[in-house]
Write a structure and sequence with these properties.
By secondary structure, the chain is an alpha+beta fold. The chain has helices spanning 26-41, 45-65, 69-77, 106-130, 149-164, 167-172, 206-217, 231-243, 253-260, 272-279, 293-299, 323-333, and strands at residues 81-86, 91-96, 134-141, 173-184, 190-200, 223-227, 268-271, 315-320. A hairpin with a 5-residue loop joins strand 4 (173-184) and strand 5 (190-200). The chain is globular, with a radius of gyration of 21 Å.
Length: 344
């Protein structure tokens, strides 16, 4: 399972522990999603790399089918040859020959969500330091209607705008970020959700928030709220939808055509006081400071440097896209006792 979706994926064979015989209630499936996300994180790197390849091949075939030859060509070339800096057991860095930048490309999506994390994590940390707020992950959902994807996205975003104008919201939230997740149900209807990291000013009963959401949407009170214990993990969870907003393997040619029509649709944004805070926020003059320690370290590594994890010399390995999953597999199957002392 490369993609992360709602009820549509509950019957996915690979996730049989979550397979549900009866249709789950809206609340149940939102809760299942949390479990599912944990399962997804347990998949090996080789499995994930293989799924990314399959997703791209599927997208490329769809693109050919709707005469988007240029897009198909870009997808084929994206990450097709890789320069891998490795000691043979660990990977320090991967440099692709070409990146397509297509919004549904899983390789480019991963890079885009890393960029968002590097940009917003320092701002969030600083914002929380200066304001007495608690971060929460809020999932807002809406009723399913016969409408286009564009209409569905507009409907939920308009409802969120209404929610933000309400007194209750302003009393309890000091801004945050939003990202869109959309998929299609078996009924063919679009399911669109907003994932919000909200900076909560003070505690409130969830029923009050449900009532507010019902007032904003007119017909939906379904939402899910959980406290974020670690903001880095919370942000990672939410920007994930920027790299995989939908289940592409369930995606048909018409879906791709429709998606291409959404060209300038934003998938991620900030709101409230956090939005203003980000405008004036300069993490550091040094771009590296916003990166994780490992990332900024990897950037300076070249062939012959010591592997950050085992100190063995790094060398440059040229791989084709099909060879990368095999290489991950090789690393995964190397006996743990052979792996050198971890770098601290
Ligand atoms: Zn790409
Ligand atoms: Zn190593």
């Amino acid at each position: 399972m490369n993609q992360f979706t709602l009820s549509t994926s509950l019957t996915e064979p690979s996730l049989s522990p979550l397979k549900s015989q009866s249709k789950p209630s809206a609340h149940t499936y939102l809760d299942n999603r949390v479990t599912k996300s944990q399962i997804e994180n347990k998949r090996t790197r080789s499995q994930r790399a293989r799924e990314r390849l399959q997703t791209k091949e599927h997208l490329s075939r769809l693109a050919v089918g709707i005469y988007e030859g240029e897009l198909a060509d870009k997808l084929e070339r994206c990450h097709s040859r890789l320069s891998v800096l490795t000691c043979g057991r660990h990977i320090a860095r991967i440099i692709p020959n070409f990146t397509c930048e297509f919004r549904l490309c899983p390789d480019c999506g991963r890079r885009r969500s890393r960029k968002l994390q590097n940009k917003y994590l320092p701002a969030m940390t600083e914002f929380m330091l200066h304001n007495r707020v608690t971060p929460v992950h809020l999932v807002l959902t809406q009723t399913h209607r016969a409408e286009t994807r564009k209409q569905s996205i507009k409907r939920i975003r308009d409802a969120f705008t209404k929610l933000q104008r309400r007194v209750f919201w302003n009393e309890h939230f000091k801004g945050g970020t939003w990202s869109l997740e959309f998929t299609k149900g078996k009924d063919g209807l679009h399911h669109t959700h907003l994932h919000i990291i909200g900076f909560r000013r003070k505690f409130f009963g969830i029923e009050l928030l449900r009532g507010e959401w019902l007032a904003a949407t007119g017909d939906s009170h379904v939402l899910h709220l959980k406290q974020i214990k670690d903001i880095a993990t919370g942000l990672q969870e939410v920007v994930k939808y920027v790299s995989k907003p939908l289940d592409i393997r369930r995606f048909g040619a018409e879906d791709l055509r429709e998606f291409l029509g959404l060209k300038n649709m934003r998938m991620f944004g900030t709101f409230g006081e956090f939005r203003d805070f980000c405008k004036g926020f300069e993490p550091s003059d040094n771009e590296g400071a916003a990166m994780s320690e490992v990332e900024s370290l990897a950037r300076d590594l070249v062939e012959g440097c010591a592997c950050p994890q085992c100190s063995a010399p790094l060398f440059d390995l040229r791989l084709s896209k099909n060879e990368l999953p095999q290489f991950y597999e090789q690393i995964e199957s190397s006996p743990p006792d052979k792996v050198g002392t971890r770098w601290n």
